[in-house]
Amino acid sequence: MSKSALAITEEHIDLADAVFGALNRADSRAAARATLEDGSAHPAAIWSAAADLGWTGLAIAEEHGGSGFGLGELAVVLEAQGHELCPGPFLPSVCAAVVIDRCAPDSLRAELLPGLADGSTVGALAVSGNFTIGSDSTVTGESPAVLGAPDAGLLVVAAGDDVAVIDATADGVTVTALDSMDTTRSLGSVALRSVAVPEDRVLRGAARKARTVFRVLAAAEAVGVSWATLEMAVEYAKVREQFGRTIGTFQAVKHHAANMLVNAEVTTAAAWDAARADDLDGAWFAAAVAASHAIRTQIFNSQNNIQLHGGIGFTWEHDAHLYLRRARTLAALMAEAGDPLLDVVEGHRSGQARGASFTLPPEAEQFREQAREAVAKLRSMPADQHRDYLVDSGYLVPHWPKPWGRAAEVLEQLVIEEEFSGVERADMGITGWVTLTIAQAGTDDQRERWVEPVLRGEVMWCQLFSEPGAGSDAAAVRTSAKKVDGGWRVTGQKVWTSLAHMCQWGLATVRTDPDAPKHAGVTMMAIDMNAPGVTVNPLRGLTGHAHFNEVFFDDVFVPDADVVGDVNKGWLVARATLGNERISIGGGSGGATGFAADDLVKLLDSAPQETQAYYVRRAGEVLAETHTLRLLNLRRITRAIAGSEPGPEGNVTKLLLAEAGQRMTELAMELAGSAAVTGQTPTLTQAYLGNRAMTIAGGTSEITRNTIAERILGLPRDPLLK
Ligand SMILES: Cc1cc2nc3c(=O)[nH]c(=O)nc-3n(C[C@H](O)[C@H](O)[C@H](O)COP(=O)(O)OP(=O)(O)OC[C@H]3O[C@@H](n4cnc5c(N)ncnc54)[C@H](O)[C@@H]3O)c2cc1C
Prior knowledge:
CATH architecture of the largest domain: Beta Barrel
Bound molecules: flavin-adenine dinucleotide
Structural class: alpha+beta
Helix content: 40-55%
Number of strands: 18
Radius of gyration: 29 Å
Low-confidence stretches: none
Number of domains: 4
């Protein structure tokens, strides 16, 4: 398995493997450690390896000595460099090179790029400071801290909206090396006093693009730091023992690790999306999102890595502090280059809140024509025939098996999503994922009886799993059934059953062998909610609405023909249902959010100036998070199209969706102030209350973190009480 999180395609995986291999051979981490004493922060061996292997010229045009690749490839290299703490000015130099390559006139590109590509010139990019270009074509100003400036022969400096390209040895240039917290690379202040710059070295309007380049590539490096620190923490948690157990069995440790994984995944998705962009203007918003995550995550993961190592993590000899130093320093420079959170909000305000465009392979076209035809036909029909047409054509649930769906693979699903955008297709919520389970695990007779009426909107199903004594521990059900002639007699109680009062059928977990181990004695049964002995009592949720119910079974007869799956093997079917539920919720179905990003921005903009100034950064965090949820799904799809294994995004999206909804409505409540608690914002207030359910229903966030830690990170399971 590749060590790179950013790489999905075969080419990127090969590139990443080559870079990791070369950095290991160059003993990058040891070189980084040596910088704590008297080792160079610009080791010649590492720099010449980067040049010889073509990394310095990777994203420079071929006619100027590079390989003509893009930010995506450079991001893969930078991730590996962050992961392996690679010392030296690679990041600032390639940032400077990309800005010149993308924004400078041909004559300047021809003059400067060959040196940057072959590594004989080191560049640095200054995106913070107060530089200005005077009418006499001179640049004046200062930047307090520029990465790699003491090593650079060429300074690329953002001055207002423009960028100036300056020789470090020119008259009026002073670079002062600073004592950096991160010893693995140089940092210097840059002062320019009336430095003359010829017109072809002023890149008009390029400052925003320069910031975008820095954000994308610095975020990619932060991705590497975030995964390296997570991996170190998890490896240690698997072997360190305390209290007679490995510390990875403790839930506090698991949850730290799960939080680190979620942050790393989010930052990876955002950096991957930003680096896919072909044009730097289009990547501006994606880069702001990536930078806002990267600033936070690299620090969070580096700090938690130290925490999970205990005392040894605090030692000078351990590498953990090298990562923290690197992360903290890069985060400070990224923040000083313009607050990306403010840009995230601005991107929403100005309608630029979109990821980089997603290019589908040519095979997609065969599906597009069919989907377009279907949409055209649908639009020509009266509205009351729409649902039947969607069912008959398989477009209601394209990913379901035939004959109900189209057995659509990822590519066809993506095309359908695009072509059907704006067409109303019913979200069946719980009824949908319960029926999908029947379609997957039921008999032919059951499929025939139950699936189609659901699709046509004639019948609803509920999920009868939770009981007073079986919530998170869903296999601990006590509702039991006795075998009788031709079927079973069911007695017991379910609780929190959503919409049971509106449903004709329910899928229930029932104990059929009280002597078998917990997971082994459960059978799945379809229960007719109108059968004698079934009582449904509505329960009011905290919103005031009776959304869920308690359901009692008193000697209810269930015919053998309504048992779904094998007797005593119902846990397998239950797990499939819970899996379908998670994917549906993580993909946005059954959510309680009821309050969208645009609503938040409107609320922010209608607040008084002072309030806006106070809350705008938090709004940026929430908006970046919500945006990234979509990117996680996009990465899952891209991975599937590239034929790779599914990644951990599914679990991560369930957790994030739930918590992001709560953070969004919490912030909105704060912004709305007393209006939100005095009946003046009914939609928001309901959404705020309703969203409390999201971290409970469909598996609580604590259980999801346990699952992430155990199933994805491989930490040991909780030892069970005997
Ligand atoms: C709005 C809503 C709709 C619902 N709809 C349905 C439905 O249609 N059908 C259905 O079957 N169920 C439904 N549920 C029930 C839901 O699945 C359960 O509430 C959920 O699984 C938690 O179970 P519990 O309520 O018994 O809480 P408990 O399991 O008792 O948990 C209480 C607290 O302890 C924590 N906890 C428990 N075990 C662990 C552990 N091992 N590690 C760490 N923390 C732990 C939990 O995270 C939680 O914070 C719904 C719930 C809600 C709120």
